[in-house]
Amino acid sequence: MGFLDPRNLIWGLSIAVLVIIYLRSHARPLIEVSSLMLFDEQPAPAASVRRVQFDPLFWLEVAALAALTLAIAGFFVRIPEAPAHGRSRALVFDLGAAMGATDGGVSRLDHAKYEALDMISSAAPGDQFSVISYALEAQLVQAPTSDEKELRAAIAGLRPFAVAARPVALRAALMRARAAAEIDLFSDRPPPQPAVANLASAGRFDFHRISGSDANLAIVSLDPGAPGSAWARVSVRNFSEHPATCDVAVDVSGTEVMRRTLVLAPREQATDRFPRLGPLATGGLVRARILNADALAADNTRYALAPASDRVSAIVFSPDPAVRDDLARTLLAVNPNFRIETIDPAKYKADASHASNPYALAIFHDSFVPNVPAQASLLIYPPVGTAASALAPDLKVEATAPAAELRDASGSAATAMPMGETRVLKLGEWMEPTASAVLSGHGRAPAVAFGQSAHGSVGVIAFDIGDHMLLDPDHLNALVATIDLVKRLVAPSDMQIVPTGKYVTIPAASPARVTAPDGAVRSLAPDKWGRITLRPLEAGDYTVAVGGTTTQILANYYDATESDLAATDSAASSSSAERGVAATSVPRENQLQPLVLMLAALALIALVAESALLARHAARWGVRHV
Amino acid sequence: MLETRAFEPDYLRKLDRLVLGIKRARSVRTGERRLGRVQGLGLEVENFKEYAEGDDLRFLDWNALARLDHPLIRTFRSERQIEITALVDASASMGMPERDDKLGLGLALAASIAYIGMADNDPVRLGAFSMRRGAMRFETTPFHRRRESYVNFRPFVSSVSAGGETRLGVAIDQFLLQHRPAGVVVVISDFLVAEGDTDDALKRLTSAHHEVKVVHVLGEMESTGAYPPGLYRIRDAESGETREAVLGPEYAAHCRAKVERIASIVRAICDRLGIAYAQAFGARTLDDFMERELPLLGVVR
User: Fold this and answer.
1) ipTM exceeds 0.85, yes or no
2) N or C: which end of chain A has fewer CB within 10 A?
């Protein structure tokens, strides 16, 4: 029992007023007389103690006022929720990478499925269930239904992704589940309290905590270095609370260059160089693997691309010799095997020898030279009105802003960096902006973009890199953005290495056949710009076949929070060795049942009864009206 | 307020032809200096007497002194006059029950008697007494002799309010301490006091050679016990004492009997002391009082 608004109990004073009125009306009146001598012979009343007489009118009025006061104060009772037929329940599954952690061949998600299926089996006839999953985004897997067969199929189809479950996705999933009378969340880690506070207080939220083994080793990073000049490095981490041995193997283009056993202390991270004798001799695809069996396999393999050791040519156009020098230095930092030509665009003359052997990369700073044979092009601070439509359709350079703030892909102002003059770009939809800038007088506009068209890879940088900006430590973000873009431009066109969950675009003139790491095959149709977009959610090797061309997408997964399986157990019960489902559910409160209507009805009944009594008295006294 | 009735012209016309009957001789010998007496103010020479120390030299007969060489004092036959004092009980009991307006009735009666007393140009005054906060509050007006000055009583009549205890004996003591010549004293009260107090007070008045007349005033409601029936808490207006009582027809009978008993006691005291006694029970009885009760006080037409 309780009150929704206890302050309104102040209206209960009306009962006190009624009692005072009643007592005054029934009090013996006091009269003042000239002398008690005249009352000497008058006996006192037999009973000196008065009793409160039963006055039905009084008690009816008290009942009416009490009922109205309780109704205004929001009197409620808590009643246990009665099992009802046709109740709707939402089953929300965490499909983050940690839910794929296995123990004895059974994953955490499998345990969650078992429990959910038990709930469905034991549900009352007519109960409806919906299935919602979340990882990067929330997804309604199964609309509310009471068909057990459909539900079992939907639950059986759930698979963990090699991505970290985002809190915002959990919120979205709970939003989708709000219509359900009861929400059951299956996850290996407790949800953020703000996300479920309202649901738990309403008594309609159950959290089923799934626990399991915490023995997980992960490859944190893989740096191929520079063949012939910089060491390659691999970092591994033990997330377990126990020491562990870690067998690491690295191969380059299929040739094993390292196999080593590391002993890692609990929660230790170690970095090792390879190969033993120095930097890699040749470039190619570098793959690092952890050979030990652990709970989570998604973070046991990682790919990197070592720059080719073959000489590749690049040409840099810029009217500013300092910029040409800075760009050449930057390119050599990305790949020491670059053979770089720098030239003032006004002095450029086409060389017929490059027609059959095009440049790997052509960079145009504050200039554009048409018909330069190159596999990839980078436009930096392109002049206003650049006629680059053949190279980059729909790319327009509209104006120049005197100043700008460079922001990363998230657009956060916290990481904003002031820049100098910046072009105002308008991109074609086939281009993907990777960084933006807030331009003075022009608002937000793309600052860095990448795209692939039929003419090859094209990158655009809107800000000016003059005045040695790329070498300025205060403009490190500009250097990083430039290097990342150069790496993407010079990467092999038939191979991309991306983190899981990131969108990948591939030029495709016809439908593509995509083969996932688990062998699943699906077909994707190209969009109007002649490309397909793929989002790898599993770690491993995706193969995209378009016509006779095959592109390899290598997806890496690592997330420090998601891979830390021990962290999920630290907040759980003390039985860290507990296996299977460790269901920790939020205790469900009884339902609040406001009694406003009932109390109002009681007050009305009391008033009607009082009216009836008054009418009866009026008839007895011969009064025609009350 | 009933006391205003005493100043209404039509009411005063009814009183015009009435004369207060007084038993005592009105004459005193002028020229005698007696403590507590007022010399006569008449002009008719009655006799001569030998001068004695202390006699007023204004009345020395200088012709006889020159002729006989012996001081003689002329004595005069005084005019008829007697001081009339109407004392009204202004205690709290006279204000209850309010509906009865006993105090108003008492003041109206006192003013009426004063008006009648003025018919013979006798000096008349009004007084009121009550015990307030342990001290006797005894207030009187100056003497007035002619009816033209009757209206001078009005401010006093209007200012008297009920309050305090009765204490009739203390009030009479205050009156006697003024050492006025023996005259007529009209005591108007409800006499709701102890029997001994009434007897003692009236006895002292008569002992001082005053001609005493008593008007017993009671309200209609209290004399008949005509309260609405029911259970009541009743409080004494003077003492503040309370008690519970059941009022109704039975009480009314008891009340009437009690009033009759109190009246008979006061009447018996008056008879024994030779005091004229009259009853004025109920404010409505003011006009009846003049016709039926005034003769009992010696008022004649």
Assistant:
1) no
2) N
